[in-house]
Amino acid sequence: MCLACKPCWPVPAGALLVDKELKLLPREVAYSRVDGVSNLSSETGNLGALYLTNVRMVWHSKMAASFNVSIPYLQIKQVRIADSKFGLALVVETSAASGGYVLGFRVDPKETLEYVHKEMSSLLQAYANCPLFGVEYDVNAGAESQAVKPLEGDADVLEPEGAKA
User: What's the pTM?
Assistant: First the structure.
C-alpha cells in the first residue's frame, strides 16, 4: 500500500493484485485498465497492464506481478507524451520529494496513448482539486465524546511560569 510521502516500488505481489485484478484502496475507484502497455525501463520493454484510478496510476508486468509500479497522484509532477527509442511514450515524472523518477510507458496504438494521457491528466487535475489522503474525519462525529469535561476531585491548578498571582 502506498504512503503519500515515500515511493512504493515494488509493492509485494499479494498487496497489489487479487485474482489478477487491482486491489483497490479504501475510497479508490478504478477508471481504466489498459492491457498491452510496456514499461520502458529495460532494453526491450516489459509488457503489462496500466490502471488509472482516482488516487494513483498502477502498472504491473504480465509475466511477473511482483514487477510493478504504483504511484499516487500526490507524487506525480508531470505527465506528457514524448518520443523515445521505442517511439511515442507516456512519460510520468515524479516530484523531487518522491525520488524524481522519470518512467516511460509504451501505449499502442497512438489513439489509445492520447486517450490515456488525456484521462490521466484529467484525473491528476481532479485529484489536485480534491485530494484523497486515505484518512476520513468527520468534525461532527463524536462531538459529545470529545467535549472538554471538568476535572473532578482535587486537582492542582498549574500556573504558567512567570505568571503573577
Answer: 0.73
